[in-house]
Amino acid sequence: MKPLSVCLLAAAGLVSTGLAHADEALAKSKNCLACHAVDKKLVGPAYKDVAKKYTAKDEAMLAEKVIKGGKGNWGQVPMPPNPSVTPEEANKLVKWILSLK
């Protein structure tokens, strides 16, 4: 592989890793990680399990659930609404979660 190609691939990896950490930081700042973890069930489902169940077609519905809450999809414990999350933040969080497949 040519040196320039290697540098471009490395840079792309660093950028995507940085974005993933930024979105995890957003989840932490919005208190999402109090009930969810990336790879294990806590009060709510693991984000990797959510990513397996849903696709990009479900992004709008999931973003709405992030803001308004939901119940019945993952058991008896409802997800409370999180009105401190803006629609833009909810979309960003959902895209990050779905990228964890």
Structure description:
- This protein is mostly helical.
- The chain has one domain: Cytochrome c-like domain (Cytochrome Bc1 Complex, Chain D, domain 2, Orthogonal Bundle).
- Helix content is 55%, strand content 0%.
- It is built from four helices and no strands.
- The chain has helices at 3-29, 47-53, 59-68, 87-98.
- Helix 1 (3-29) packs across helix 4 (87-98) and helix 3 crosses helix 4.
- The two termini are 28 Å apart.
Task: Tell me briefly what this model is.
The chain has 4 helices and no strands. By secondary structure, the protein is mainly α. The longest helix has 27 residues.
Features:
101 residues, Cytochrome Bc1 Complex, Chain D, domain 2, 0% strand, globular
Overall strand count: 0
Overall pLDDT, averaged? 86
* Strand residue content: under 5%
**Which sequence of SSEs, written as H and E, runs from N to C?**
HHHH
Shape, please?
globular
> What is the CA–CA distance across the termini?
28 Å
Pairing-aware structural class of the strands and helices? mainly alpha
Radius of gyration: 15 Å
Roughly what percent helix?
A: 55-70%
In CATH, the topology is named: Cytochrome Bc1 Complex, Chain D, domain 2
> What's the CATH C level?
Mainly Alpha
At CATH level 2, the architecture is: Orthogonal Bundle
> Total helix count?
4
Q: Major sheet: size, sense and barrel closure? A: none
Relevant CATH superfamily: Cytochrome c-like domain
Number of domains: 1
Low-confidence runs (pLDDT<50, min 5 residues)?
3-19
